[in-house]
Amino acid sequence: MTKRRKKKRNFRRKRHRAFLIRTAVIALLVPLLAASGILTYLYTHPVVLKDTVITHELMEPFDPWENVKQLFFADRQDVTIKSEADITKLGDYPVSYICRGHVYKATVKVKDTTPPVLKVRPYTTDLTEEITPEKFVEEATDLTEVTLSFKNPGTWDKEGTYEVQIDAADTSGNETVKTAELIRKKDVTPPVVQGVENVEVLQGRTVDFSEGITVTDDMDPDPQLSVNSDQVDFATPGTYEVTYTTKDRSGNEETTIRKVTVKKDRDYNRKVVYLTFDDGPSAHTDKILEILNKYNAKATFFVTGNNQKHNDVLKRIVDQGSVVALHTYTHDYAKVYASEEAYFDDLQKISDMVKEAAGVESKLIRFPGGSSNTVSAQYCPGLMTKLTKDVQEKGYQYFDWNCDSTDASGNNVPAETLVKNATSSSAQHINILMHDTDAKGTTVDALPDIIKYYRSQGYAFEALTIDSYPAHHSVNN
Ligand SMILES: [Zn+2]
After folding, report:
1. Residue 454 C-alpha to ligand 1 middle, in angstroms?
2. Is residue 474 part of a domain?
3. Is residue 471 assigned to a domain?
4. Residues 248, 276: one domain?
5. In the predicted model, what is the mean pLDDT of residues 9-17?
6. What percentage of the chain carries pLDDT values higher than 90?
7. What is the pLDDT of residues 246-274, one digit of tens each?
8. Are residue 201 and residue 338 in the same domain, yes or no?
9. Alpha helix positions (H), 160-308
10. Ligand 1 centroid to residue 279 C-alpha, Å
11. How far apart are CA 123 and CA 130, in angstroms?
């Protein structure tokens, strides 16, 4: 080998080594540089979103985090989310994710893709009714407003069964279609009228002929009713006919007759004074009877069991044509108004006493303090409301007054005051409140003038009967 050749080989070896070193350096450096580049990029772009357009269903809860695919070198607390999404309204809303100065934007499209819930039912009707989709709908609900229509509109006006398609559409155009059955029948039955039982009324009173009347039809929900009561004369006793004519929209008509009997009222058009004496008997009862006899007048005595030494006068009241009636046995508000049971126990006692002493069974009542009393509320709230109803159901009648002599306002109220108050009424039926007790001497003194005054005005003086004008007060308890 020559020296020259040796030199040449050495040179080649050196060159090869340099090449290997360079290659190795590049092979190590390039990925390092690339990796550091990616890392730098990722550090400055830490948020990766799934979508920039998010389609979201109306009313579904919206969580903006669900749109975040990946976070690099960042935690959730490094990200600020600003969302304007309103899931209650259709529309496009911006949502942005902010992290290390970078803003990532997306759009939330709130959409409604759910069709309405629709439940239908069959519908039966006559041949006249206009058919609307609503008739078949049991339920039509959606998050937005539902519009109902027929998918296959028709007249369907002959007898038969039709299949109708009900379309329920929401405001986004989602639709649900259901098939329902329409049954058209010819209506041949007239409406039925109820509440037209025959009725009796006292002369001079009136009846509201439409009260309590109901009309129903198998097909027409709103049948017509006409009432003709032209021939009824409430002033003249007799039996009259009222006609009720009903008609449905298919033209079926029926007439029902109601008989109205106007009964004679002996007090009709007559002026009557009912003199009433409460709380007796007393030492004055005989004197009162004497005056009544003298003027040929009758009166009513609402008695108690508190002065029974005078009970022998009760028989004389009845014998002279006046009436003994029931006020209460004890007249003790705390006792008689303690309860309904307490009231009726007391009523039985006074009733028994009157039967024994006067030989009559009275059904006429006067409540202590009248039916309008408020004292009873202290012992039993609501009692008078119950009693006024229940005594009548048990066959009694209670009487209040429409003229007060005011003899209960104190003892020895001057007779002229009593006369003035007791003669202040000009009603057709006057029920005058007076008292028959040992302390009410001036009431006895006033009585003749009271009778004389009303007699001069054309009034009769009668004792109460169960049918007499009851002068009811309005109940306050
Ligand atoms: Zn009394």
Report:
1. 24
2. no
3. no
4. no
5. 78
6. 84
7. 999 999 999 999 999 999 887 778 899 99
8. no
9. 285-294
10. 5
11. 12
Q: Determine, yes or no, domain membership for 373.
A: yes
**Residue 365: closest CA among 340, 343, 342:** 343
Please tell me the predicted confidence (pLDDT) of residue 40.
Answer: 79
The alpha carbon of 331 and the centre of ligand 1 are apart by a number of angstroms equal to: 7
The per-residue pLDDT for 43 is 77
Do 25 and 174 have their domain in common? Answer: no
| One domain, residues 249 and 329 | no
Instruction: Looking at the structure, tell me whether residues 174 and 196 fall in a common domain.
Output: no
Distance, CA 368 to ligand 1 centroid (Å)? Answer: 5
Read off the pLDDT of residues 174-216 as tens digits, 9 standing for 90 and up: 999 999 999 999 999 999 999 999 999 988 888 999 999 999 9
Please, which pLDDT band fits residue 2 given cuts at 50, 70 and 90? Answer: low
Clarify whether residues 54 and 33 are in a common domain: no
- The residue type found at 386 is K
> What residues contact residue 166 under an 8 Å CB cut-off, 6+ apart?
118, 120, 133, 136, 137, 148, 149, 150, 151, 177, 178, 179, 180
Q: Are residues 9 and 147 in the same domain?
A: no
Element (H, E) at 180: strand 175-184
Range of the domain at 410: 272-461
Total count of domains within the chain: 5
Helix (H, G, I), strand (E, B) or coil at 5: helix
Q: What is the CATH number of the domain that holds 250?
A: 2.60.40.10
What span, in angstroms and rounded, lies between the C-alpha atoms of 414 and 223?
A: 66
- In the reported structure, the alpha carbon of residue 347 is separated from the centroid of ligand 1 by a whole-number distance in angstroms of 14
In angstroms, how far is CA 193 from the centroid of its own chain?
25
Q: Which pLDDT value is given to residue 4?
A: 64
| Same domain? 259 vs 328 | no
Residue 292: pLDDT over 60: yes
Q: For the chain, what percent of residues have pLDDT higher than 70?
A: 98
The model's pTM? 0.51
Expressed in angstroms and rounded, the spacing between residue 433 Cα and the centre of ligand 1 is 10
